[in-house]
Amino acid sequence: MLNEERIRLMTKMASYEEGEGKEYIPIRQYYQRDYVSYEMIKTFITSTISFGILLLLWLLYKMEDMSDFFNGQELPSLGVSILIEYVIFVIIYQIIAYIVYKHRYTKANTSMRKYYSLLKKVQKLQEKEDRIQPLEDWK
After folding, report:
1. Cα→Cα distances 90→33, 45, 57, Å
2. Residue-wise DSSP of 71-110
3. Which 3 state secondary structure label does DSSP give 7?
4. In this structure, are residues 9 and 122 in contact, taking their beta carbons and an 8 Å threshold?
């Protein structure tokens, strides 16, 4: 005999695994600190690449002005200002990444707790059904 409640819960769980679960299940494989750190390292790398591309585009835009500039003594001050802008750029991205990925982990954790509670319900219903099944077979 099929237990309709158990089938309904299992369908709900399968739907979760195909939808939200695809995003949240891999996140829960990490501790929060590890997940956030890993994502912040990825953000550091991508923000460095982004800054390099933006710097290159800026240099191409200012190409005419740069020929006069390189003849002057202001090259070290340009390097220092670019370095300061880079540090500020990366720090802003790191702060944003920390907030976003910490929130994403918390959201995944909450969602997975609901999933695990459904899993426990299904398990209890299965155990209950297994206890009843031998009695029915005996009759």
Report:
1. 20, 9, 18
2. HSS-HHHHHHHHHHHHHHHHHHHHHHHHHHHHHHHHHHHH
3. helix
4. yes
Residue type at 69 in one-letter notation: F
Torsion sign over Cα 112, 115, 117, 122: negative
Chain segment 56-106, per-residue pLDDT in tens = 998 888 887 776 666 666 777 888 999 999 999 999 999 999 999 999 999
Q: Which amino acid is at 15?
A: S
* Residue owning tokens 């991508």: 46
Separation between Cα atoms, residue 44 and residue 83, nearest integer Å: 15
Q: How far apart are CA 56 and CA 115, in angstroms?
A: 47
96 touches 46 (CB < 8 A): no
> What is the DSSP secondary-structure string of 111-138?
HHHHHHHHHHHHHHHHHHHHHHHHHHHH
3-state DSSP call for residue 6? helix
pTM to 2 decimal places = 0.71
Q: What Rg, from alpha-carbon coordinates, does the chain have?
A: 28
Instruction: Locate all alpha helices (DSSP H) within 19-74, ordered by sequence.
Output: 20-27, 32-61, 63-71
